[in-house]
């Protein structure tokens, strides 16, 4: 086993293509991490929890609102403290992006004509018209007199919006029974009650609180994503070089001569897996040396933790390209395949741009990509959450089991053919 590993490593070190990816991609990754730049992907999460003011009623809410939420375009003719409170309470749910236009100088008929036009020209999930006597209608308990709703899409969140709005107005009416009709006193009472309620937390699918990054951490996360993109390309093509050696050994009957010794086919392919482990370690060490010579480098986490993540990610992709190349049995086909895997997986994993505002299906698909899990782990490390180590270890083991299992089946089918 040791002899097979030594032989493979020596052959790889004579391969110019292998040396190129072994050295150049870590250098490029280190360069990306060293660049001091401000990215525009940062958005303060609080921006999704406030009323977004439109310049006028002709401005389209789809250009201003958060497209990942249900956009509610509001025509506010009342413009008072009570309407501010109601709209802010709907915005803080995080499910709705509330965009308000001032229509206090328009009649109800004019607003209705504007709403009919916006139903076709704008892409809001729902239109809400707060009439001039909105506060009087709410205090009187006759909400229909002060509110008009226009359902202009098939977004299922419209029903939830109506339910939330109804519950909120009912709560205001309930507090009014002991706070009185004075708007200022009423709002103070509502705020006091709201402060005593337990804070709502947004949780993700894993049951953990959603990670909130600062602007600096967001910039660091973006640079880490770019570094992942470069380094994984190196891991994939280094793995292809190992697969190329396996193909050459089979074509030149080296594999047959090895089988004539006491070694088994299982020992042979385990040795190749060990080689993938070694080249992942080598690339990680090259990256570590490059990072050592960068003065004042700050990736937002401990450098050793970052290198561990890089190594485990490299182990997955080196093994994947190795087994893919062996199964395909052709070096050119292997090159095309790994380049396609690299480009598509990096895109779907969100290494180039965040996937926060994409569809649910695309977000789910992104979790099939190893880089997405490692990016999530990097976010946890950026905020000091040590659970990231268990995440990357479990993900690495899971991917290796799947890759080796599927690769083993593919090799058996290939030998049978």
Description:
This protein has 417 residues and is α/β, with parallel strands linked by helices. It has 16 helices and 5 strands. It has helices at residues 2-13, 16-34, 81-91, 108-121, 134-140, 143-146, 157-179, 183-196, 215-251, 254-259, 265-292, 303-328, 331-348, 360-366, 370-382, 388-416; strands at 52-53, 70-76, 96-102, 126-130, 147-151. Strands 1-3-2-4-5 form a 5-stranded mixed β-sheet, sandwiched between helices. Strand 2 (70-76), helix 3 (81-91) and strand 3 form a beta-alpha-beta unit. Helix 9 packs parallel to helix 12 (303-328) and helix 12 packs across helix 13 (331-348). The longest helix has 37 residues, at 215-251. The radius of gyration is 29 Å and the shape is elongated.
The whole-angstrom Rg is 29 Å
What ranges have pLDDT less than 50 throughout 5 or more consecutive residues? 39-48, 198-209
Number of strands: 5
Along the chain, the helix and strand elements come as: HHEEHEHEHHEHHHHHHHHHH
Roughly how much helix do the residues carry, as a percent range? 55-70%
Query: Which oligomerization state do the chains in this entry correspond to?
Result: single chain
With strands numbered from the N-terminus, the spatial order across the biggest sheet is: 1-3-2-4-5
Mean pLDDT equals 80
Q: Please indicate the percent range of residues in DSSP E strands (runs of 2 or more).
A: 5-15%
Structural class computed from helices and strand pairing: alpha/beta
Query: Helical segment tally?
Result: 16
Span between termini: 27 Å
What general outline do the C-alpha atoms trace?
A: elongated
Q: Main β-sheet: number of strands, strand sense, barrel status? A: 5 strands, mixed
